[in-house]
Please model this.
Amino acid sequence: MNDYSEKGLLPAGLADMLPPAAVREARINRTLMDVFAGNGYLQVKPPLIEFEEHLLEGSGAALASKMFRVMDPVSHRMMGIRTDITLQIARVATTRMKQDPRPLRLSYAGQVLRVYGSQLRPERQFAQAGVELIGPSETSADAELILLAAEALGALEVENFSIDLTLPTLVPTLCGELGVDEETAASAREALDHKDAAALDDYDATLSQILTALLKAAGPANSALEALEKIDLPEAAAGQVAALKKVVAQLQQAAPDLKLTIDPGEYRGFEYQTGLSFTVFGRGVRGELGRGGRYRLMDGESASGFTLFLDSLMRAVPRRPADDRLYLPFGTGLDQGYALRQDGWKTVAGLAPEDNIEAEARRLNCGQFLGPDGITKLS
Amino acid sequence: MPSSEELVIALPKGRILKEVMPLIRAAGIEPEAAFDDPASRLLQFRTNHPNISIIRVRSFDVATFVAFGAAQLGVAGNDVLLEFDYPEIYAPVDLDIGHCHIAIAQPKELEEDRDPSRWSHIRIATKYPNLTHKFFAEAGIQAECIKLSGAMELAPGLGLCRRIVDLVSTGATLEANGLVEVEKILDITSRLVVNRAALKTRSVELNGWIEKFREVVNAT
Model:
C-alpha cells in the first residue's frame, strides 16, 4: 500500500484497458473497419461532443437520460457527449452529405459515454463500430447489412453467432388494424417483449390469440416463418411478414450456413426502428454482440444500419495469445532489428548490456531472444 | 433434445421447490440422489441428462443467475421478475404454482388510516423496494422503502415503520403478528424463465424444453 494506490481508483463504470486487452480491441476494430471498407463503406468521424439537441433527435430521445451534458463556455449552449454514434451519422447524411449520391454507404468507429450502464453492461464508456446504408428502401439493402455483419464476425473468427430478425412495427401495426387503443397496444407490446405468457391472456380474445401465436412463433427462421404464415393477420401486418420472408429467402440463398432466428415480438431498444431489425448474439456470450435495423432520417429519407459493441465482441472473439515478442540484446544492429520486424517479430530492445540475456528476456515478457545462435525460444 | 453443451437450471430453495420438482420430473429431468438429501452440502446437482445440471439458490438469485447467463433456464416468481426487471429474462411459461400475492399490511390499531389514496408520504419495510416504490409512485405517494431480507412482519411492532409490503399466501403470518392486509398489489405465480441470449443462440434446444414444460403444465 502506498500513496499511489488510491490514484488507481476510477469512477464507477470506467476502466483502464491494459495490454493485451487494449491490443485486442484495436485489432478487432481494425478488422471490422477493413471489412466495412472492403464492402465500399466510407469512414466518417464525427466529434465526441456536440450540441445536445442534435443528439436527442429521433432514437436519441431514448438515451436522453444517459447523456452527459456540459455547458459550452464559448456559445453558452448545452452540449452532450454522444451516447451512440448512429445519430451523428444520420445528421451527417442529412446535412453535409445530402448531395452525395445514394445509396450512401458510411462506416464509423469510436467511443461512446453513458451516465450509467445497464445491468448487463455496467461500463459507462465503450467502443462501437458500425455502418449506415442511406437511401435505399429495398429488402436487398436489409440483406446486404445482415450479410455484412456476418462477414465481419467471420473475419473476426467468431464462431457460433446467430442473427435474430425482428419486426418492431408488427405489433403496433397489428394493434392499429384491430382498432386496439394505444395504451393497451403499448402494454401488449411490452408483455410480448418480455415473453410474459401469463400477461398475454389479459387482452380480448382475438388479440390474445394472435399475441400468444407470435410468442410461440419465435425460433429458427424457417419454422418461425411457417408459424407466422399460419397466423390470421390483418393485411398490413401480413405484408410485413411477407417482406421478412423475402429477406430470409435472400439471406439463405446468399449464405446457406448463416444461423438465423426470428422473434416477431422483440421490441426493447427498437422503439424508433421503422422496419426489419436484427440483433447479433454469440453462443455462450453474455448480452448482444450488436444490433441494427431500418429507420428514417430527420428528413424522412430511408436508412438502415447496424452497430457492433466491441466490449461484447472481446468476449466472443477467440483469444490467440501472441508469442511474438523478441528480445534484442543491447547492441543489436538497427538493420537487423528492422529485418526481424519485417518478418513479423515485435522486437524489444535492451537499453544496456545484460549478463544473462535469457533472464532479461523472460523478465520483459518476451517469448524468445536473439542469441549468438539466432532466435532462441524460451522454454 | 440432443446437445452436448452444458444447460444449467436454477431452482429456488424452500417452499416453491416442493411444487416445482413434480413439474421438473414430469418434463423428464431427474436430479441425482443427493438433491433430496438434506444433509448434502452440494449446490450443483447432476441429472439423468449428461449435459443438464440443477442449481439450488435463493429465489431472488434465480433471476440474477439467469439474467447473466450463468443459468439458461430457471423458475422464478413474477414478484422477483418485476423487482429486478432484467431485460435479459423471458418468462414464456406460467407454471401455475406458488400462488400467492403481494400486499400492503399494517397493524390492526391503524384501523382509521386504511385508505391508501389519502397517504402522501409513508415508510415501508419490504423485500421489494423497487416494486414498492414503483407501485406507490404510480399512485402519487412518496414511499420511503427500508429493505429487509425477511421477517418483515416484525417491523411495525418494533417501531421500524408502520407498514410493510410482503408476500401473502394464507395471511396466517400477518394475523399472528397483529397485522391486517390493506391493499393487494399483485398476484404471484412461478414462471419458467429463460436467458435471452441462450434462447436466441440455442433456440431449437431451449424451445424444445419450453414446449415440454408447457405440455406438462397443461396436463396437470
